[in-house]
Amino acid sequence: MQTTSDEVLIARIAVGDRFAMQVLFARHHVRVYRFVLRLVRNEATAEDLISEVFLDIWRQADKFEGRSAVSTWMLSIARFKALSVLRKRPEQELNDETAERIEDQADDPETALAKKDKGAVLRQCLSALSAEHREIVDLVYYHEKSVEEVAGIVGIPEATVKTRMFYARKKLSELLKERGIDRGWP
Amino acid sequence: MNTTNKEAHSDIEELLPWHAAGTLSRSDARRVEKALASDPELAHRYALVRDEFGETIHLNETLGAPSAHAMEKLFAKIDAEPARRPAMSFNLVARAAEFFASFSPRTLAFAGGAAVLAILLQAGIIASVVIKEKGVGGYETASAPSTDPGVGAFTLIRFAPQASGDDITKFLEANKFSVAGGPMAGGLYKVRVSMTALPKADLVNLVKKLQGEKVVTFIATTE
To answer: Closest Cα partner for B220 from B172, B152, B157?
Structure first.
C-alpha cells in the first residue's frame, strides 16, 4: 500500500491541514517521545516536550526546505527542546524514581548474570552511558540515522560523529567488563 | 599490517554501527563487506555491534509510549493558534509535492523527460502559430479540445504502485485519457476518460473494462 510521504504531510500542514498533522503525529510521536525520554529521563517532561515539538512543526512547516528527512528535522527540534529543559533543570532535580524505572527494565547486573542474560546486562550498560553517548547510540541504532543525519541533528562534524560513536561503544565495553562480561574488545 | 592498512581498518571499524543499521552508502557498504569477508577479527567486532544494535532496539521498545493526553494537548494548542490563511502559491507547491511524491524515482525520471518533450512541443506549437499569424497577416484562433478541467467524463483511479511512469503514460495515451486532478486521499487521481460527457451506463461499462488493466488497482466513476 502506498502511504503519503512525510514531505507531503508537511506541505499539507503548512497550509493548515489538521488531518495531516494527526497522521504525522501518529507516525512519529512514539519515536520522538522515546528519544526525548532517553535524554530528559522523566516521562511527564518527555510527554510535555513532544506536544511542544509537534507544535513547532505545525508552526514552522512552511519553512521546511526538505534539505533533510522530516524525521531528522523532528529529532533536531526534539533535541533542542530537551536540552533547553535540561539546562534549566539541575541534575539533582531529575526524577530519580522515573530514571531508575527507565533504566531498570531488566534485572540488576548480578541477577541478570546469574541468569546468563547477557542481553539484559548490555541494556543496563546502554542505560548507564553518558547522555552524549546514549544520544548517539540511539540515533544510530534505534533511529537509524546516517553519519550525515546524526551530524545534522547533534550539530557536530561527521568525523566527530564517527569517533563519538566509537568511544561510546568503547565505554560500553568497559562498563560490561566492570559487570563481568569481557567482550574481547577493545 | 602497515600504517595505511591500520588506518583503513580503523575507518572501516568506525563504520560498522552504520553498516549494521543499513544506513551506509552503497560504496561504503561494499567496502565494509569486503573487509568483513577477509578479516575474522573485524567480523568478530561486527558481531558485537549487532548485539548492541539489537539490545538498543529492545531497550527503546520497552520505554513505552506517551498517553493519549499528549495528542489532546497538542491539538488544544493548535486550536489556540491564529487561523492560517492558505497561500495560493504554497498550495501549488504542496500540490506539486504530492503529485511527484506519489511516483517512484523511475516514474519521476520518465516524467522529467516527458516534461522536456512537452516544453519542446509547446515551443513548436507557439512557433507555428506565430509563423501562421505572420503569414496571413491577421489573428486566428485554433479550435482545440476543451481544457476546462470540469468538462468531460471522469473516473477516480489508483495506479498500481509497481507501475512505472512509462506504463501509466502508455495506458493514458492508448485510451486518450488525461489526469485532471490528484493525488487525493488514498493516492487517487481524477482521470478524464472522455472530452465530452458520457451516458452513465457507458461510463460504468468503461470502468468495468478498465478494472482489468494491470496499471489500475482501483477505479470508480466520479463527477
So the answer is: B157
Q: Let me know: does B55 contact A118? Beta carbons within 8 Å.
A: no
| Residue of chain A whose Cα is closest to the Cα of B23 | A146
Rounded to an integer, the average pLDDT of A117-135 is 93
Nearest to A142 among B24, B60, B93 (CB): B60
Sequence ranges of the domains in chain B: 3-61, 104-141, 153-222
Q: Is A71 on the interface with B (CB under 8 A)?
A: no
Query: Are B165 and B108 within 8 A, CB to CB?
Result: yes
Return the domain boundaries, chain A.
1-95, 106-180
Task: Measure CA A66 to chain center.
Answer: 21
Q: Quick count: other Cβ atoms within 10 Å of Cβ A108?
A: 13
The residues, ordered by sequence, that sit 6+ positions from A50 with a Cβ below 8 Å of its Cβ are A29, A32, A33, A36, A78, B66, B70, B74
From the options 1.10.1200.120, 1.10.1740.10, 3.40.50.2300, 2.60.120.260, give the CATH code of A1-95. Answer: 1.10.1740.10
> Does B65 contact A30 at a Cβ distance shorter than 8 Å?
yes
Window 53-82 of B: residues touching A by CB (8 A cutoff) are: 53-60, 62-67, 69-71, 73-75, 77-78, 81
Query: Quick count: other Cβ atoms within 10 Å of Cβ B173?
Result: 10
Topology classification of domain B153-222: Alpha-Beta Plaits (3.30.70)
pTM of the model: 0.63
Structure confidence by residue, pLDDT tens digits, A14-70: 999 999 999 999 999 999 999 999 999 999 999 999 999 999 999 999 999 888 999
Residues B68-81: tens digit of each pLDDT: 889 999 999 999 98
Average pLDDT over residues B135-161: 58
Residue B81, amino acid: E
Determine whether the interchain pair A14/B74 forms a contact, defined as Cβ–Cβ distance below 8 Å: no
Query: A120: nearest CA in chain B?
Result: B55
For A106-180, CATH number?
1.10.10.10
Contact flag B57-A142 (C-beta cutoff 8 Å): yes
Instruction: Count CB neighbours of A21 within 10 A.
Output: 23
